[in-house]
Amino acid sequence: MSVATPLRAVLPPAAGREPFFDNAKFLAITLVVSGHLIEDLREVPVAHAAYFYMYTFHMPLFIVLSGYLSRNFTFSSGKARKLISTLAVPYVIFELLYSLPRLVLYGKLDISLLDPYYLTWFLMSLFLWRLSTPVWQQLRWPLTVAVGLSLLSGMSRLPDELSMNRTLGLLPFYVLGLMLRPEHFEWLRRRWVRAAGAIVLVGGGVLALATHTLVKTEWIRWRHANDAIGVDDLTGSLIRLGMLAAGALLVAAFLAVTPARRTWYSGLGAATMYAYLLHGLVVKVAERFYGDWAQTLPGVTVVALLGVGLAALLCTEPVRRVTRWAVEPRMSWAFTRLRKPG
Fold first, then answer.
1. How do residues 122-150 score in pLDDT, each as one tens digit?
2. 17 phi, psi to nearest 5 deg
3. I need a labelling partner for 87 at 20 to 30 A (CA). Which of 98, 130, 209, 218 fits?
4. Cβ atoms within 10 A of the Cβ of 12, count?
């Protein structure tokens, strides 16, 4: 079979889904969960390097895939309802849920629906990105405009409301996903590209290990303006361009080595939003029990591997059945027929 074979022919469908994308999403969520679990262990050099490396591209990867899978978004009633039930309502639910650990652990109750807490920023940003989809699809140079907005956002101290820093800073990855086509993923399946992808990922890990103490962590979090990180706008824009380029390169490399065939975790990859939204509750509790054992290389390894297991567990059907009310609430009762003017 030639590498030019259409992607749908290469990837046997499972319940109408393409395993390649579910595989990529599951592998990505394991990085997210493991990254959050080792965040409090960054005094161990290897943990800090791994954290820096994963954060360079794990959310850009999710955002690129989200953009690609949002290419057909319109303001039709069905799409709008899905936007509300899969993003807006879960955002409100988890903003409330994540206020509970803060209340129990820190005695602080602080709820602000416009200022996302912890990992709920992604729901807010994805909601706004998806709403903007029709605009990007009509621009002549959408990626250039998105990169420009990302650079400009680093020159201003934007408010935390609506996750503006991350929404604009990471916007190019969403627009990049919108611009991708099936043939781009076919190209990634070429043997030499897959080999190059593996080399890039290994080289990136080695580079992260060598440089992780030289780059401020805030650059990989996309939360602050240039002056808040301590650089002028020219330097900050160049660094931000470098982070965008590095993220895009590592995303391409990661996708190149992602299996295209159906695997044992393909089915789990269809439910990564469960792992994303639920794992933070576990992380906030687990961090309270880290002892000296975790502040070692073997301890960091164990915690990271537990993250892989936790990600898989949270994507399983039993967990989904119990938590579907929060992650994928049934909202048909809240909608009526589409109202038309006049």
1. 999 999 999 999 999 999 999 999 999 99
2. -110, 155
3. 218
4. 11
